[in-house]
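Lay summary. Proteins are chains of building blocks that fold into shapes, and those shapes determine what they do. In this project we predict the shape from the chain. Here is one chain we studied, written as its sequence of building blocks.
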Amino acid sequence: MDFALNTEQQDFRRIVRKFLADRSPLADVRRVANSDPGFDPQLWSVMSEQLGLPGLLVPLQYGGSEASPVDAAIVMEELGRSLAPSPFFATAVLGVSAILLAGDDEQKNELLPFIASGKRTVTVAFTDGDRAGPANGTAMQTSRSGAITTLTGTRTQVIDGHHADTIIVVAAAEDDPPRLQLHLVDGTATGLRRTRVETLDATRPMATLEFDGVCAIPLGDPITPATLSQLIDIANTALAAEMVGGIEAAMTMAVDYAKMRIQFNRPIGSFQAIKHRCAEMAIELDAARAAALYAAFVASDRSEELPLAAPLAKATAAAAFDFAASWNIQIHGGIGFTWEHDAHLYYRRAAADKVLFGSVQDQWLQLADRIGL
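And here is the predicted shape, written in a compact code that computers can read:
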């Protein structure tokens, strides 16, 4: 399999990188992350109207670009590099993938054109934001009266859950035995209470959602645990690409500072200990990028290898990001520990991403289980 990006994809990367560098520098990232919505609606509007990013994975018949997961990975990598807060991950990756996997034709026709145009944002409320498992969805109580389904329960760690227009909730359908069902909930529904919570990584806002008899619409038919696992694999593939961007940004920041900082009349980058750490960052970056691209290409080919490639990519990228972000702070010395310096933004993102949708250990255990070890 050739992991090289074609000319169009390389041009697309340059366009997205320049756009984010111009429109979302780290100074703006800090300001936007601390705002009420947690993202810049104007930036999202430009991303939608000029770049068409929300509709990247949406089929042409619904007004999207019908691009591949590799193209989505390119955007995620550049978002990870810039740390630009946006609804892209929750809406264009999680939301669109869930609708394509489970929705019926009528629901796709109703939802996807608005998502592709950037007029509707979506998120997915898993069980405590984690991975697929036997208990996923069972904590949410569902009741059905005729065609009306209501949800009662709580979901935590919902990405962009405080502002998303539509929430896709994983819950157990009222069957015997219970089956997993995705439900559509309007963000303004009666009985829904949404509270943004303070997290380690302010650049990826999360919320706690409380459902008290909230009306919901089943998204297609009940799904199997395998379908939910596929959705998580897609999420981890995109997340791995995002972390690759963060690794490269942290490494670049560290190398640039090592060239500039003079100690004992020499740049600190000339010291063996600093050289070795920067070289290790480059090695970790190459490994993470290879694993992330492998997973993205596998997802593009709809290969049966995705259940193996996704946890591998997530585990590799998460460990590498943690290493690069930590040593970026160490190489900067005292200034790297200050609130004013940007190094901690990448450290916080690395620490948060490491446990999102399953820790590094969880990913290796899941991979071992899937290959029958």
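What the prediction tells us: Residues 129-138 have pLDDT under 50 and may be disordered.
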